Each structure stands twice: as structure tokens, then as C-alpha cells.
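C-alpha cells as discussed.
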């Protein structure tokens, strides 16, 4: 098993929404011993009207909600939205090394500026396949895209290659 998945992780809004589009919002809770959701992310998820709302509310009940803290540092506030900034800040405050983020800029800042390990929703699907939780990654990625969730073609190709599906 990949070491990344052996410790608690802090999760952002986007991956939960993307996974909800394919009825898999609970996947992070099957892959990690604990999923932490910052208060800012909880508020974002509950504020958005979507067909996935009930599923998202359900998965939030499984998460450890990290309370709102003092504002993140300036780099985070100027470059990222509140949820992404809160995810990185929470990981740093809690001494965790892993985050789940889908947005490219947030992933880059988390890994390069803060030294965090990052996975996104597509990477979680690859791990789910490796563990035998799903048969293949491709139909799930296609379902997310059909559901209106953006996944770039290079990311899709890389995930399919990682899953041995090319």
C-alpha cells in the first residue's frame, strides 16, 4: 500500500464534488485512516446547491472538521481560494504531510512552497483500483467529466497510464 494513504489527510471541496459526480464521495474515507475537512471547506460544500448535496452532507458527517483558525499566510490568501488556503494551513498546523487537492495552482503551491504530498480525485481512483475497490479508472474519470467536473486530458492520460489502462 502506498505510504501516502497510511496517515490522516486534509481534503478540499473540489475532490469531494468530483467524486460525488460518480457517487463516490465517500472514497477518501475508505482510503485513509482519517479525513480532515477544514471548516471553510465544510461551509463551501454546504453552501452550494447541487444534485450531490445529500451525498456531500453524508460524507461530511464522517469527516473530522478542523475549526477555523487565524488567517493563513499571505501567499495562500493572495493565490488561492479560502478552501484551498484552509486545506494547506490545516495540514501545516496539524503537522500532516498529505492533502487532497484538484486545482493545479493549489497543488503546485502545496507541494513546492509547503513540501506537502498531494493527490487529487483522479489519483484516489488509481489507488482504489490498486486496492481492488473498483475494476477500472477510465469509466469513473469519464463519468466525472460527463458530470461537468473538469479533468484535463494530460491528467486523464497520466492516470490511465498509472492504472495500466493504456
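Sequence:
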Amino acid at each position: 500500500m502506498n505510504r501516502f494513504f497510511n496517515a490522516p489527510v486534509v481534503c478540499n471541496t473540489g475532490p469531494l464534488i468530483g467524486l460525488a459526480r460518480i457517487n463516490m464521495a465517500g472514497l477518501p474515507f475508505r482510503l485513509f485512516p482519517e479525513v480532515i475537512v477544514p471548516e471553510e471547506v465544510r461551509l463551501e460544500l454546504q453552501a452550494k446547491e447541487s444534485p450531490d448535496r445529500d451525498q456531500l452532507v453524508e460524507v461530511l458527517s464522517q469527516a473530522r472538521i478542523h475549526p477555523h483558525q487565524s488567517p493563513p499566510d499571505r501567499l495562500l490568501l493572495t493565490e488561492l481560494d479560502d478552501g484551498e488556503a484552509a486545506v494547506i494551513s490545516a495540514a501545516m498546523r496539524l503537522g500532516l504531510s498529505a492533502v487532497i487537492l484538484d486545482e493545479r495552482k493549489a497543488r503546485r503551491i502545496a507541494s513546492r512552497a509547503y513540501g506537502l504530498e498531494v493527490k487529487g480525485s483522479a489519483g484516489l481512483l488509481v489507488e482504489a483500483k490498486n486496492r481492488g475497490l473498483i475494476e477500472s479508472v477510465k469509466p469513473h474519470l469519464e463519468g466525472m467529466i460527463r458530470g461537468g467536473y473538469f479533468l484535463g486530458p494530460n491528467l486523464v492520460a497520466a492516470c490511465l497510464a498509472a492504472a495500466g489502462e493504456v
